[in-house]
Amino acid sequence: NLEGLVRMGWPNVQREQFKGKVRKKVWDVISDELGAVDQEMVEEITERVVDAAEFDTRYRKMFSSEKER
Fold first, then answer.
1. Does this model's pTM top 0.70?
2. DSSP 23
3. Three-class DSSP category at 8
4. Residue 45 in contact with residue 61, Cβ under 8 Å?
5. For residues 54 and 60, what is the distance between their CA atoms, to the nearest angstrom?
6. CA pair distance 13, 5, nearest whole angstrom
7. Could you give the residue ranges of the DSSP H alpha helices within the chain?
């Protein structure tokens, strides 16, 4: 909804979309490697990667699609 976008602000929307991509990738990697996924661990790793991606384009590129680059 447009009102929600306005209230939240576009940069926050973009961050949340990016966070969703990171979370999915982290979830996939951890479930493949560890079998049992710990939701808390996934969230902590996701937050750290998203924070790092704000300042380091290498992290951003790892999780962006070809059309976003």
1. no
2. H
3. helix
4. no
5. 7
6. 7
7. 2-8, 10-34, 39-53, 57-63
Q: Which tokens go with 66?
A: 């070809």
Closest to 66 (Cα-Cα) out of 28, 27, 21: 21
| Tens of pLDDT, residue by residue, the chain (69 residues) | 667 666 767 788 788 888 888 888 888 888 777 776 778 888 888 889 888 888 888 888 888 765 554
**Amino acid letter, 25:** K
- Cβ neighbour number for residue 14 with a 10 Å cutoff: 10
**Cβ neighbours, 10 Å, residue 41:** 13
Look up residue 23 and give its two tokens. Answer: 């979370």
Place of tokens 């979830």: 27
